[in-house]
Amino acid sequence: MKNFVEELKWRGMLAQIMPGTEELLQREMVSAYLGTDPTADSLHIGHLCGIMMLRHLQRCGHKPFLLVGGATGMIGDPSGKSQERNLLDSDTLYHNQEAIKKQVAKFLDFDGAEPNRAEMVNNYDWMKDFTFLDFAREVGKHITVNYMMAKDSVQKRLSGEARDGLSFTEFTYQLLQGYDFLYLYRHNGVKLQLGGNDQWGNMTTGTELIRRTLGQEAEAFCLTCPLITKADGKKFGKTESGNIWLDRNRTTPYAFYQFWLNVSDEDAERYIKIFTNLDQPTIQALAEEHAQDPGRRVLQKRLAEEVTRMVHSQADLDMAIAASNILFGKATKDQLAQLDDATIEDVFKDVPHYELDRALLGGPAIDLFNQDGMQIFSSKGDMRKLVQGGGVSLNKEKINAFDQPVTAEDLIDGKYLLVQKGKKNYFLITVK
Fold first, then answer.
1. Does residue 85 carry a catalytic annotation?
2. pTM for the predicted model, two decimal places
3. Is 151 a catalytic residue?
């Protein structure tokens, strides 16, 4: 088996590790879990480091469990939050859980015959019938308030960082997460919890609960990955428009691909280790090639390709690359026609947009593209000269005559016309 800890170290994916963890991993096949709260029906790329930890764990011969917090998701974790989360109802949580499982199945093998096949569990299954009195007797008596108060996540909220303080609901979160570890230890033989570094306090509460409940000889360990940031120290995965989601309906494969393509050189060299399966020699060779000519953006291109293919598909990657080439004049009409509505809007979000009455279709291009309010050409005479010089295209094909009719058959996705003037000037017309 490959050494899981060494794999994380060279990839820059190891923050804290409890003594004895590496020895355990080298001694036997270890069952380990990572928790995620189903507060949305999609993961975003901020979750990817944790999911990649599970992927590497399985590839190193160990057994991953993904715990979906159907119960804890109803409460909310105070770690790193300035205010309490909104509580979700059970129907919403179930919907979110099923959506998340489909996404994670692209990273982990849930269906194989190997003993280390991945499993998904939901803590709602063991919490739903657990009464408050039972919880207080079986869990609460083992962990002191002094111990809980000492956690950084609690101290930060109590020291004034949060406007509304810390509710009892949130205060008990670390006990609930600790009980998850105890339950999985007892029923599934899980000895290791993985998570982000902001979870260290909650995770060690779990190991403490296991030892106080089952005895000091109980083997329970924790390992965290660092919180991923950009080179400038800002939060990873956030853009002006919000999170970069794994769900194509929230973030198109094109926009997803573009995010990775546009990271800085410094970030690309870190991210390609964390978010791909490429081995160390391959990444080293790519870094050396990139250093010889940074303008070619070798690291960013390979990073964007690998992550987009893994999260979406090869077909989606091909479409994202084709869409990316459109603005640089390399794409064809057929490639343009393959783009869906959301991708077209993403690709051309920064070009001038105009609207055209559908009743005008069938008329000559010189009339349609010189409507009042359109600022594509300075005049009809200007358009005539440009067409004669081969400088005007419709949907990536040259217009040969200024009076060429524009019909419904020319529409992309049933409603768009893309006019190009010269090499770099694009105009998107929506036909309504």
1. yes
2. 0.85
3. no
